Structure formats: structure tokens, C-alpha cells
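Weekly structure sync, notes
Attendees: PL (lead), two postdocs, one rotation student
Agenda item 3: pending single-chain targets
PL asked that the sequence for the first pending target be pasted directly into the notes so everyone works from the same version. It is reproduced below exactly as submitted, 274 residues in total.
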Amino acid sequence: MVLYAHGGLNAEASSAVNAGRIWGLAKRQRVPMYFFVWESGISESVLGWLASDDDAGGPTRFSWQDAWERIKSGARAAIREAQRALGAGLAPVVREVFWGEMKGRARGASTPNGGAALFAAELFRAFARLPNDRYTIHLVAHSAGSIYLAHLYRQALQGLLQRTPNAVLGSVHFLAPAITVADARAAFLADGRPAVPPERFHVHTLRSQDEENDSIEDGSRRVPLLGIREDFTTREPVTFATQVDASVSVRHGEFDDAGHEIEGVLAEIGRAQF
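Predicted structure, written out during the meeting:
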């Protein structure tokens, strides 16, 4: 079965519609698929800011006033560009505020009382009730969804898999992942032991001629991303995964669109290639 997390800066309603379409693709491949539809849209992040104003432990710790002033000062144009080019080309409000809010949501979902962790625990309880059956989990994510699933694997799935003899992790497929190389390595290469062999960990990136600077900046320091071809192969060579050129997509936000790479990924899983 597939566990899927969509990318950031996607509203809940549109993400649910997209999940319905992709679920239909998985069904045709006879692959059960579960979706984490997490609130990463602009309006939802604004509400997150408002909550953080009264909660020092909120994801961003930015005040509502600060967010509103940034929006009025011209951040809207940057926000519209966020799906196309995450990172260095964006105004600080997207990198520092919306991005921080999204990462906070991704992290919080896999804490002990988070929705993703609670779902995973219930799923594995179902596995345990059918000990004669065997289950293979495949993790698939687009963009910031890779951060969501990395937290889920490290904080919940890894331990559950170790305690459940009839369940294994079959493969990981990240489509233009926005997770940093360092965070991906920490999640999926714990103590030097890969979560899956490199040939079962596919990182789909744009072709060189199509790739834009989708990196995240941390102050003046550029943080290498797993989904940036140059970062994957040159800046911090990745040994725990395999880089795959986009077959259709020419923009960051296209990988899970109809007719794009997500369909090939589900077809490979459906053929039990992993």
C-alpha cells in the first residue's frame, strides 16, 4: 500500500480533489493508497499565524501583526510564485513565515498525538490482527510532502516496522522533494543503515535545462535540497537514493498532475517492481 503526502502551499480542498484523482489511478493498479491531506495553503497558514500569536509553541512564533504587515508590503506576488520556485527567488515572507508554518505542521503531525502518528498506529494495529498476511508500505510524496513523510518515518513508522514482523518498507518515491539533504539523510540513513536500498529510493528531479533555483535559503547560507539535481549529485552527493530525471514535468509543481510522473510511480508499485 502507498502512503502519500502532497506538497506545500496547497489548500485542503484542492488537495482533497487531487487525492481523489490519484486514488483512482492507484485503484486501477490494484494498489491501496492512503492520503495525508494537510493544511498547507495560504489561508490556512494565515490562520496558523493567528494561533501562533497566542501560543509561544506554535509552528512559526510569528505574530499576526508581523504577517499582515508583510502581506501588505507586497508578499502576495511572491506567494503566487511559491509553487513554481521555492526558495532563493522568493520574498522572505515565503521562506521564513509560510515555509516555517508548513514545516511546523509537517513536524507536528508525527508527534505522539499528531494525526499522522495516530493513523500509523491504527494501521499497524490492523496489520497485527492479521499476522498471516504480509504488508509492504511505499512512501510517495511531492515537494514539501517529503518533509511530512520524513518526520512520520523517523518518529513513528520506523519503530512500528521494527515491531511488526509482517510489514516492511518497500520503497520511497519523492517527486521534486523540498526536504534538505541533511534532513533526508537523518531520517532515512539512521546510524548508517538505509531505510531501503538506494535502488528502491527514487528522487525525481527536473532535467537540467528545466530546473530552476528551487533551493531554500537560511540567512545568507544556501541549504542543499534533495530535489535539486545539482545538490543531489554534486554539492552533497547522495548515496542512499537514486536520482531519476523527470519524464514529463518541466516545472516543480507538475509532478503529481494528471499524466505526469505520479502515474509512472504508481504503475511501478502496481507491478510489484519494488
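Discussion points:
- Strands lie at 2-5, 33-36, 135-142, 167-175, 201-205, 216-218, 221-223, 242-245.
- The CA atoms of residues 117 and 269 lie 24 Å apart.
Action: rotation student to compare against the earlier draft before next sync.
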